[in-house]
Design brief:
alpha/beta, 8-stranded parallel beta sheet
């Protein structure tokens, strides 16, 4: 890659860098025995089963076991929507933790939505949004996660949103740092889907536990405009602590029909990323289990090709 990587960017871009800086917790359990592992490991995002979960056909407490027994995946990424009222329920969280342990699965992160805009134009509302996320930091710590995933929603001009989002994220990341929990931002619509803007936000926060979760598919800027997904992922990778492998559909050869996975995963690899890549199937044609299997097979094929 041709972009200059400063010392802070280097520290946060990979498990190896984090371990070298004495900050292995920022990348989670993947920092261990890196040389004995493939260059990335597959995890499973709970959103891949959002239809089943919303319909009551799957229970949040069964997600970890399903990941392991049905797909052979031993790392999971939760979505707070599926246990929204349980953030402070230690009995419930303890049951989640126990079921993970019994299944031989570890909890990676909690994706947090619906807690307010961290870049709200109103300082009072922005502070409220930051504080609303505290309980998820505490829940992530209790479950053994290394991070929470948040959004950088804001309003105003380009520069105003940059300042406001950075302010909210910095406050939340400072709280997370005290608890050894990273705060990672996903490109998730609006200006957060502009890789240049979100990279500038992370640089302005300038805290080692604040980074990105590049998603292969979320580059809708609104108003019918799309940001170049490959450019965007390349811009976000220097700050990535996890990666979301979005998938929607597959052709007869097992390739994703909207995303060039070999090209995308080469960007990930060339950035020096050596951590977990989370499956996030969001398609309509394939049933959710089939979509997860297709995404896993594609990731494993591309991993072998790029190795």
């Amino acid at each position: 890659m041709t972009r200059r990587t400063d010392r802070r960017g280097f520290l946060v871009q990979s498990a190896g860098a984090a371990a070298g800086a004495g900050l292995a917790w920022l990348a989670g359990p993947e920092a261990k025995a890196a040389s004995a592992r493939p260059w990335f490991t597959v995890s499973l995002a709970q959103w891949s089963f959002h239809k089943a979960l919303f319909a009551g056909k799957m229970d949040n407490l069964d997600f970890a076991k399903t990941a392991k027994t049905e797909f052979g995946i031993d790392a999971v990424e939760y979505v707070n929507q599926f246990f929204k009222d349980k953030a402070r329920d230690r009995k419930y969280l303890a049951e989640m933790r126990t079921r993970c342990r019994d299944a031989g699965v570890h909890s990676r992160l909690i994706m947090c939505d619906g807690e307010g805009a961290l870049g709200d134009a109103d300082p009072v509302m922005r502070r409220s949004a930051v504080e609303n996320h505290y309980k998820w930091v505490e829940a992530a710590k209790f479950l053994g996660c290394f991070a929470i995933r948040v959004n950088a929603a804001s309003s105003g001009s380009y520069d105003e949103q940059l300042e406001r989002a950075a302010d909210g994220l910095r406050r939340l990341a400072e709280f997370g740092r005290q608890r050894r929990i990273a705060v990672i931002v996903e490109n998730h619509g609006g200006l957060s889907s502009n890789g240049q803007w979100l990279s500038a936000v992370i640089k302005k926060v300038s805290l080692p536990n604040c980074g990105t979760l590049p998603d292969f598919g979320n580059f809708d800027l609104g108003g019918g405009k799309q940001y170049d997904r490959y450019k965007g992922v390349a811009e976000l990778m220097p700050f990535a602590k996890a990666v979301s492998a979005k998938s929607l559909d597959f052709d007869a050869a097992g390739n994703e029909t909207t995303i060039d996975y070999p090209r995308m995963m080469k960007i990930v690899k060339d950035a020096g990323f050596r951590s977990y890549v989370g499956i996030e199937y969001e398609g309509e044609r394939l049933a959710e289990p089939d979509g997860v299997r297709a995404t896993k097979a594609l990731l494993e094929r591309v991993r072998a090709e790029l190795a």
